[in-house]
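SEQUENCE-TO-STRUCTURE ENTRY
===========================

Backbone structure tokens: a row of integers, each naming the local backbone shape at its residue.

Task: work out the structure tokens from the sequence, keeping to the layout shown below.
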Amino acid sequence: MAAEQRLRSVNFWSGVVVLCLTIAGALVGIYQLNEVLTDEQQVPLAELSVQGELHYTASEEVRQALTAEPLGSFFTADVDDLRRRVEQLPWVQKVSIRKVWPDKLSVYVTEHKPVAMWNGDRLINQHQEVFRADITRADSSLPQLFGPENAVKETWKEFNRVQQMLEVNGFQIRALRLTERFAVNVVLAQGIEIKLGREATLERIKRFIDVFPSIVEHEKSKNNEIDTVDLRYDTGAAVAWREAKSES
């Protein structure tokens, strides 16, 4: 009976030792695996793929933004952090990044598409968001919009309303200003300023279109050029003139 108890005791403690060794081996294995997975030399990000319709941002600029700081390994690279690095580039609106096994980082870049200049030193994109970039690289024919900083969408909306009616009649807007009181002034491509005020904007544009032929006839007869057409009246318009430039 005593021999049987000793045998059971030996088997028990042998089992405990084996269990402890197994756990210790597993912990060592996990530690070593973690060392491998987090070692950039063992599982490096060896390939960067940059995609997207890039007109203002070079692929090399994206690569430089990503590699300005260590990327990390395939498993430790923080995709959100990498995305923020690229989104700091001036023309970049949105970035999508994903890891592709075993060593590739796929980057898809969406750029801002400028639709207008904003207050002389910034741009508006296709979502009516203001962004700062080198405006000399944008199309010089973009309309110039001026307005309160908190009224970007309202200014863009007003521009489209007015432009839609004017372009049907052969006019193009070069610039539009929306004042703090939401009065509208427009400068046409030929340099004529139209003062529309705050109310009945579209009706006043129609009046401008109706009276414009008569204004042009007067312009020809007086050898003057139209400077400003003020339509902030219930009827009619007030026209200011400038002296025509002499042809050299």
Remarks:
- Residues 31-41 have pLDDT under 50 and may be disordered.
- The CA atoms of residues 16 and 22 lie 10 Å apart.
- The chain is about 40% helix and 25% strand.
